[in-house]
Design brief:
- The protein has 79 residues and is α+β, with helices and mostly antiparallel strands.
- It has one domain.
- The protein has 2 helices and 5 strands.
- A 3-stranded antiparallel beta sheet has the order 2-3-4, with helices on one face. Strands 1-5 form a two-stranded parallel sheet.
Amino acid sequence: MKKLVSIRAITARLNRKLAKESKKLLKYRPRLQSGDSIVEYAVVDLTTNAIINFHMAGEIEGFARERGCLAGLEEISFE
């Protein structure tokens, strides 16, 4: 049975892991012509203010799994 974890909890877990590397996961809304409310995520290096990864909305679950922030039986709830 899968356990649902909120997106807010995952971003907190990821930010705790990334803080050790002077990085942070930020949420942003890209500028689009339509009125869609799409949310994207980007990893930013805090020492150089450079964006490392961006447009990660569809890849956030895989990114959390490879960083060890999401267990095998956990699944992200985007609601």
